[in-house]
Design a protein that fits this description.
By secondary structure, the protein is mainly beta. The chain folds into five domains: 32 residues; 84 residues, Beta Complex (RNA Polymerase Alpha Subunit, Chain A, domain 2); 96 residues, YbbR-like domain (RNA Polymerase Alpha Subunit, Chain A, domain 2, Beta Complex), CATH 2.170.120.40; 84 residues, RNA Polymerase Alpha Subunit, Chain A, domain 2 (Beta Complex), CATH 2.170.120; 89 residues, RNA Polymerase Alpha Subunit, Chain A, domain 2, CATH 2.170.120.30. The chain is 14% helix and 44% strand. It is built from eight helices and 35 strands. Strands 1, 2, 3, 4, 5, 6, 7, 10, 11, 13 and 14 form an eleven-stranded mixed β-sheet that branches. A hairpin with an 8-residue loop joins strand 4 and strand 5. The chain is elongated. The N and C termini lie far apart (170 Å).
Length: 463
């Protein structure tokens, strides 16, 4: 008995030690790789859709959320692609709302799925149908007076629509609107139709398949018998003033609708205005025209015709020769210009060029502050501001030789001292001796005084 008791004791001790070892190992493993929880979004797939049916009732759910439990090392490596969420529609009846279970499977057995939300998805299936919806035309406005509207043509007459039965069967017609706007010729327009349902309300066709998105409308428009559009021919007499030319003659509108016997209207090629006098015209103008209509032909009294006559000056060139005028030449100096004349080519309106007086075109040479010597000076052409353009000046520069005359020559530096004179300011002249008063420049002052020649020639300052 003692031996049996000892054996049992040893076995119990061994099992207790083994259990403790397992517990210690499990605790150590969990400390290094603890159990975690993680949530994932998994794509939802619909399978088993019966033939010729489609999902309706708004956008179906596309994802489900799952909760995973497992070792941290495992959960860190899982991916939504490791899971498959499926809703089987094979047993759903068409036309009836239904709730379908969602089944989620995992390719990683170490990750346990503990929760799925939602567990079901609400769906509704409908038969997929195809139907031809008729196209109707809404014509607004009318054709122009004297014209007739033919039978409109629609292409296509119907639009094929494919989609869920409830949406397709709710469509009544497609409407195309065309505005005539007093059309005078055949009207062809392509428009996007608007669909209406059986209650007369505008219906959306988003999500439905249409075989075309546009309808072409052709509305034949022809002139009525006895009516026709005829071009207007403007008649005028006389000629513009000399130097002016007739630029254009236009009528607004360019044609009018005439009425009369068909044969007479057909023979009429155009409608003339009564003559407009443009004799001596120097500027453009416009006026209401009176139509010269043959007997038996009339127009709508409300139709008015405005004629615009455009006249412009003839642009041409003119050549003049002018003697250059020195400006600012100091007293006691003279200037010799070579060549003595300058050729100026002007461009502008012929009447203005013909009316130019001799003094209207002048050529000036700027000699202000110049000392004796030889200079090349560009002429400055002065013309009135009447639309005249200076095209060329020949030569573009003239040679000007400035020299002193009379007593002023004796005052130049280096000139000989007159015999018998004292050794004063005149014996040793400086450049300041030539600083003459402003009154000695006639081109600036325009004033003449007694004794001025003597004062200016001797460099004396008047008291």
């Amino acid at each position: 008995m003692s031996r049996a008791r000892d054996a049992l004791t040893n076995i119990a001790t061994f099992l207790l030690a083994l259990l403790l070892a397992v517990l210690i190992w499990s605790s150590a493993v969990q400390t290094q790789d603890p159990i975690r929880t993680r949530f994932l979004e998994v794509p939802l797939q619909y399978v088993g859709l019966p033939a010729n049916t489609t999902l309706v009732g708004g956008d179906p759910r596309t994802t489900v959320q799952i909760r995973l439990e497992g070792p941290d090392s495992v959960l860190r490596g899982v991916d939504p692609a490791d899971f498959t969420a499926i809703a089987d529609l094979s047993r759903v009846e068409s036309g009836q709302p239904a709730s379908v279970d969602i089944a989620v499977t995992s390719r990683n057995p170490a990750a346990t799925i503990s929760f799925i939300t939602p567990e079901q998805v609400d769906v509704q299936l409908e038969q997929q149908v195809v139907r031809d919806v008729p196209v109707e035309l809404d014509l607004r406005g009318s054709v122009a007076r004297g014209h007739e509207q033919g039978t409109p043509l629609l292409e296509p007459r119907t639009i094929r629509v494919a989609g869920p039965e409830s949406r397709v069967n709710a469509l009544d017609f497609a409407l195309v609107t065309v505005f005539l706007n007093s059309a005078v010729e055949t009207l062809v327009e392509s428009s996007q139709p608007i669909f209406y349902d059986n209650t007369g309300q505008v219906a959306s066709v988003n999500g439905l398949d249409l075989d075309t998105g546009e309808v072409t409308v052709t509305v034949p428009v022809e002139e009525s018998a006895g009516f026709a559009d005829k071009l207007i021919t403007v008649e005028w007499t006389g000629e513009p003033a000399p130097g002016y030319r007739l630029l254009s003659v236009t009528a607004d509108p360019p044609s009018v609708l005439v009425e009369g016997r068909p044969a007479q209207v057909n023979r009429l090629t155009s409608v003339k205005t009564e003559p407009i006098d443009i004799n001596g015209l120097t500027e453009s103008f416009q006026q209401l025209a009176v139509l010269d209509l043959p007997d038996g032909i009339s127009v709508d009294p409300e139709q008015t015709v405005t004629v615009r006559i455009e006249v412009e000056p003839i642009l041409t060139t003119s050549t003049v020769n002018r003697v250059p005028e020195p400006r600012g030449l100091r007293g006691g100096y003279e200037a010799v210009v070579e060549p003595p004349q300058v050729r100026v080519v002007l461009f502008g309106p012929l009447p203005v060029l013909d009316a130019l007086a001799e003094d209207d075109v002048r050529v000036a040479l700027d000699l202000f502050g110049m000392e004796p010597g030889v200079y090349s000076v560009e002429p400055d052409v002065i013309v009135p501001d009447r639309g005249i353009e200076v095209r060329s000046v020949q030569p573009s520069a003239v040679t000007v030789t400035i020299s002193a005359i009379g007593a002023a020559a004796d005052l130049l530096p280096g000139a000989a001292t007159p015999a018998g004179s004292a050794s004063g300011a005149l014996a040793a002249p400086s450049r300041s001796a030539l600083n003459l008063p402003a009154i000695c420049y006639p081109s600036l002052s325009g004033i003449l005084l007694d004794g001025l020649p003597a004062i200016c020639s001797r460099g004396q300052v008047p008291r």
